[in-house]
Automatic annotation (TrEMBL), chain A:
Pfam families: BPD_transp_1. The lineage of its organism: Bacteria, Pseudomonadati, Pseudomonadota, Alphaproteobacteria, Hyphomicrobiales. This is Carbohydrate ABC transporter membrane protein 1 (CUT1 family). Keywords: Membrane, Transmembrane, Transmembrane helix, Transport. Its main location: membrane. It is a multi-pass membrane protein.
UniProtKB/TrEMBL annotation, chain B:
PANTHER family: ABC TRANSPORTER PERMEASE PROTEIN, MALTOSE TRANSPORT SYSTEM PERMEASE-RELATED. This is Carbohydrate ABC transporter membrane protein 2 (CUT1 family). The lineage of its organism: Bacteria, Pseudomonadati, Pseudomonadota, Alphaproteobacteria, Hyphomicrobiales. It comes from the Bacteria. SUPFAM superfamilies: MetI-like (SSF161098). One of its GO terms (biological process) is transmembrane transport. It is a multi-pass membrane protein. Belongs to the binding-protein-dependent transport system permease family. The chain crosses the membrane at residues 14-36, 111-132, 144-166, 178-198, 219-244, 276-297. Keywords: Cell membrane, Membrane, Transmembrane, Transmembrane helix, Transport. The keyword ATP-binding does not apply. It comes from Shinella granuli.
Length: 315, 312
């Protein structure tokens, strides 16, 4: 078989010279390029994670560095799982998670559906709707406490104006019944645009020819909606729910600034509760076990969900 | 215009337009209110019913940058006439400016840490993304998933050992420590987004460059980087915004020296109780740059917030 000149030259060139000619080999370059990122993530994420797991089996306390550290086995885990207060924070988290997702999916999808009607200027209004999403949750959450002030707050004034109630008769963040809704309202205000954008991408990905075919078959608009629009947007919607679910499971900054977990501990979500255990009560070992339980929960739920998502995509 | 069965009717468009615009106006109201409050006087800010029309003043902005003390009339006389416009402004309320507040310092910290971590994140992210996109990296999918999974961890959960680690390395409450931490937090985003952008650049360009005698590194540097410029720029803005907004690590790991603006703004208080115009002024200065970037980024927004999972 005839070899090209290039191949013959390449074969004749000693290995070292070849490498110098072509710079680093692809393999070496690949490692050189990937290694720094992996090393940084190992140092700042995986190493702390392993440390957390190790601490979770001890009674170590950061504020007592000289005290003797004992290995306590699974005692931390046992006492967390049997603690009634922790189950209450889990319930508060679940309440927050479920309602924010339901509201954001309903409002977000409806908005996307309406924007997809392509009225004039829809780009401009979409951009305006998206604005709250990118802002600092802590700073915005802090300002919402002002909007929620019983008499002078804009929110209370608006509710009073619309329903005729006295704006100073209720306090969104001071009332045990209302506070869980106060955080749901602000989170929904901030993150509905996220679900909306993803749904919009889903709606725009549906080729018009499918609707044209359905129209030829005389399918009603209602039927088209349930048999074309919904199934084709579903993978997108599920992706949005996955992102919102993970983010809101970790929720900290917005709620800390809004209610600080109060009144009492009615809005104390798991992250806030964990922060209290770790950085106010300084029960480091106990808090580490708590952190491990949260990891396992979020990874477990997320991977089950991703499996479901892949099934929907394959269909 | 040709008739199409899928084109919404005029009436549908009108109804959709009115509903969406109605929602947009309601949703933008809290942001408008922050900016409006920043130009109110403290008494206008807490007026009932809430004031829509008011005489604008920059008192909030003066207050956010300064600390003030209340003096008795005798003492005020002793201090003498106010000399600058901002002195005059606070003198109306019987106050004198006693010094600068820490706001400017906190804001500068946010800028240093935000830009520092963004630069680092983009450098590490671009090279890693290039390698993942073009080379056969062993365990590629596992490594990519590992990088993504670091984003799922609740910050508070890793904060305990990071707190201990930083303390023993002398990194707690330093700019370097926070830059390193925010780089690690945003690296998953940077690698995933940039890999998507680099995947879209045809390999043929580099192959042509390699045949022309470029080394692999030169091909990367001179051919791929310029092609990926838009992608790199939008990724950088995302990293910057996320570092800018971060609160959990900042509040736990910084206090005096390297504290950023998000933990600081809620602690702004006036001479008598919470000074809402000053808080609003601080928030406005902090939020408006992000709003501008969001508008600039709108075409890439979806891609950024879904880690490249959804591309329009």
């Amino acid at each position: 078989m005839l070899k090209s000149t290039v191949d013959r030259v390449a074969e004749a060139t000693p290995h070292v010279i070849a490498r110098r000619m072509h710079g680093l080999s692809d393999r070496a370059l690949a490692w050189l390029f990937v290694a720094p990122s992996i090393v940084l993530l190992l140092a700042v994420n995986i190493f702390p994670l392993i440390w957390t797991i190790r601490l979770s089996f001890t009674n170590f306390r950061v504020n007592r560095p000289n005290a003797e550290v004992d290995f306590v086995g699974l005692r931390n885990y046992a006492s967390i799982l049997s603690d009634r207060d922790i189950w209450l924070t889990m319930q508060a988290t679940a309440h927050f998670l479920i309602w924010t997702i339901v509201l954001q999916v309903l409002i977000g999808f409806s908005l996307a559906y309406l924007i997809n009607k392509k009225f004039r200027g829809n780009d401009l209004w979409t951009t305006i709707i998206v604005l709250p999403m990118m802002l600092s949750p802590a700073v915005v959450g802090n300002f919402w406490t002002f909007l929620y002030q019983p008499q002078i707050g804009l929110f209370n004034y608006a509710v009073g104006f619309l329903t005729g109630a006295d704006p100073s008769s209720f306090s969104m963040i001071g009332d045990v019944k209302l506070a869980p809704w106060a955080i749901i309202i602000v989170d929904t205000w901030m993150w509905t645009p996220f679900v909306m954008l993803i749904c919009l991408a889903g709606l725009r990905s549906i080729p018009p020819s499918i609707y044209e075919a359905a129209e030829c078959d005389r399918a009603s608009k209602w039927r088209q909606f349930w048999t074309i629009t919904i199934p084709l947007v579903l993978p997108f919607l599920m992706l949005a729910v996955l992102f919102r679910g993970i983010e809101n499971f970790k929720m900290f900054d917005l709620v800390v600034q809004l209610t600080g977990g109060g009144p009492g501990s009615i809005t104390e979500l798991t992250s806030i509760n964990l922060k209290r255990e770790a950085f106010e009560k300084w029960r480091t070992g106990y808090a580490s076990a708590y952190a491990v339980i949260l990891f396992v929960t979020v990874f477990g739920l997320a991977s089950i969900y991703v499996k479901a998502l892949n099934k929907v995509k394959q269909r | 215009m040709s008739y199409s069965v899928t084109e919404p009717s005029r009436r549908q468009k009108w109804v959709a337009g009115i509903l969406v615009i109605g929602y947009a106006l309601i949703t933008i109201l809290p942001l408008v209110w922050i900016i409006a409050t920043s130009f109110k006087s403290p008494s206008d800010a807490i007026a009932y019913p809430p004031k829509t029309f008011f005489t604008p003043t920059v008192e909030g902005y003066v207050n956010v940058f300064t600390t003030r003390t209340r003096l008795s009339p005798d003492q005020l006389q002793a201090v003498g006439e106010p000399t600058t416009w901002y002195d005059k402004l606070v003198r109306k309320d019987g106050l004198v400016i006693s010094g600068p507040s820490r706001f400017a310092e906190r804001f500068t910290n946010s800028v240093i840490i935000g830009f520092g971590s963004t630069v680092l994140c983009i450098v590490l992210g671009t090279v890693a993304a290039y390698a993942f996109s073009r080379f056969k990296v062993p365990l590629k999918d596992d490594l990519l998933f590992f990088i993504l999974s670091t984003r799922m961890m609740p910050p508070i959960a890793v904060a305990i050992p990071i707190f201990l680690m930083f303390r023993s390395l002398g990194l707690s409450d330093t700019h370097a420590g926070m830059i390193l931490l925010y780089t690690a937090v945003n690296l998953s985003l940077s690698v995933w987004l940039l890999k998507g952008f680099i995947d879209e650049i045809p390999v043929e360009y580099e192959e042509a460059a390699l045949i022309d005698g470029y080394t692999r590194f030169q091909a990367f540097y001179k051919v791929v980087l310029p092609q990926a410029a838009t992608g790199i720029a939008s990724t950088a803005i995302f990293c910057l915004i996320f570092a800018w907004n971060e609160y959990a690590f900042a509040v736990l790991l910084t206090s005096g020296n390297a504290q950023t603006a998000p933990p600081f703004i809620p602690t702004i208080i006036g001479v008598s109780g919470q000074d809402w115009p000053a808080v609003a002024a601080g928030a406005t200065l902090f939020l408006v740059p992000v709003m501008v970037f969001t508008i600039l980024l709108r075409k890439h927004l979806l891609r950024g917030i879904t880690f490249g999972a959804v591309r329009k």
